[in-house]
Amino acid sequence: MDKRALALFLLSLLSLGQAHHKETLYRNSYVYTFYADDSDDVHWDDADYRCAWNNAGHLVYIKTYTINQDVYELTDFWGNRESWIGAHDKYSEGFWHWDDGTKLSDGYQNWASGEPNDHRGEDCGDFLSPTNRWNDEHCDQNYGYICQKDLIKSSASDYTEVVYTKPSTDRSFAQQGCSLHGFQLLEERKYEIVPEILQQKHGNLRAKYQRECLVMEGNKFEKQICDETLTSACKAIHTYDLKISTEQEDYMESDRIEIDCTASGIPLPNVTWHQGYAPVSESTDQEIFQISKKGRSTLIIKNAQVTDTSRYRCFAQNQIGNDVRKTKGYLDVRVHPKTLAIPVNKGRSAGIQEQSALSDDIEYKEPSSCQDRNENLWMLPTIFGLNVLMILLLFVFMCRRSDPAPPKADNSGHEFTNYAVTVTKHQLPDGSWST
Ligand SMILES: [Ca+2]
Ligand SMILES: [Ca+2]
After folding, report:
1. In this structure, which ligand is nearest to the CA of 123?
2. 111 CA distance to ligand 2 centroid (A)?
């Protein structure tokens, strides 16, 4: 990322106030959450528990290369750090498995060189940024952590925040307060006791994680221990369910590309596209721009060029109190150059071939007559753009003057160059033409 783009991006984060180092990524039917605040650094056991407590699933199981890449995308921006993942050999030394019981030796692994080394009894897995490889560490180290949740098991209620209002008895005041922040008034809401199942499963941690309630007074938000006196409240939902309208990543030069990114939440999140980390313009005069409104942004590339190949990131965020949750998705857009391949045999139509690298010189096979060449040359303006059109027209004009006589060539081959088009022709023993 260039320094200016990075500076702009950091500035945009700062301008949001107290941005939490908590980042969420939606990819391929999973939602990943990265807890990167220093205050979030905990032991492995605590991290696993917190994923569940925060409705964020479990510590991530990196069972595929794709998931490893997505975890890399999620953590890379935050620099050099170690973060807990859901692998360990706590119960049997050397028997590394994901916490759902799957053996690591049965599938994808991405250990750093020489790891896991069980150095003085290391039993818990962590993800090394930015090398995106794994290490074993002492389980009682304090690190950030990465949670993973299946989107099928995810619902709006997981992201719902109840914001209590002061004074709790004045309903019209509560209504006013809720709408001021884009929240919805909850008709009757009493503070709910922590679900029994969590208390039973993690009873020993209950006291440590006693629920705090977010209480709003005008523009101020504060956290206080929840109690039964809190009865008037708003409903807010953190940004969730980010969707990108296509999974297509490969496009051809001169394609028009339109990609929607939508995200849900109360209040509706701001959604914006970035090319890399640089915000995409909202000016329709630009070749690449976005139409951004609450809850949705459409990325438009009017006339795709090879140089538009990039990772396009969609960021969505809303704010509840001081809590700004950044959620993102991404799409790697690859724009391939068009090349022209005209078959040797007369009568076959010209085809467009995909080529992995941009080339200024396009090679095509010599047609058997100038008339064929003319037909094929009419294809070229769509490929090279109008700036070449005039040159081609001149070329066609010259060809027509020489028809119907076939082009002359000596048997040893003859090569000529016409700007972007290089033609090499040889007459084969059967009389056909080839390169
Ligand atoms: Ca070990
Ligand atoms: Ca180690």
Report:
1. 1
2. 10
Residue that has been written with the tokens 């027509």 in this structure: 400
Helix (H) or strand (E) holding 261: strand 257-266
Helices (H), 90-195: 171-180
Which residues in 87-96 are b (16+ Cβ under 10 Å) and which e? bbbeeeeeeb
Please list, residue by residue across 197-213, b when 16 or more beta carbons sit within 10 angstroms of its beta carbon and e when fewer do. eeeeebeebeeeeeeeb
The tens place of each residue's pLDDT in the chain, 435 residues long, gives 444 444 434 433 333 334 447 889 999 999 999 998 888 899 999 999 999 988 899 999 999 999 999 999 999 888 889 999 999 999 999 999 999 999 999 999 999 999 999 999 999 999 999 899 999 999 999 999 999 999 988 888 888 988 988 766 677 888 888 999 999 998 766 666 555 444 555 555 444 456 678 898 888 999 887 777 777 889 999 999 999 999 999 999 999 999 999 999 999 999 999 999 999 999 999 999 999 999 999 999 999 999 999 999 999 999 999 888 889 999 999 999 998 555 554 433 333 333 333 333 333 333 333 333 333 333 333 344 444 444 444 444 444 443 333 333 333 333 332 333 333 334 444 444 443
Q: How far is the CA of 128 from the centre of ligand 1 (A)?
A: 17
The set of long-range contacts for 194-201, using a CB threshold of 8 Å and a minimum separation of 24, is: 198/52, 198/53
**Residue 49 CA to ligand 2 centre (angstroms):** 23
Distance 112 CA to ligand 1 centre (A): 15
Task: Give CA–CA dist 324/161, Å, rounded.
Answer: 13
Determine the distance separating the centroid of ligand 2 and the alpha carbon of 131, expressed in angstroms: 15
Can you say whether the dihedral through the CA atoms of 213, 216, 219, 220 is positive or negative?
negative
Q: Does domain 22-152 have CATH number 3.90.45.10?
A: no
Q: For the chain, which residues make up each domain, given as ranges? A: 22-152, 157-238, 359-434
| Nearest listed ligand to the Cα of residue 135 | 2
CA of 128 to the centre of ligand 2 (A): 11
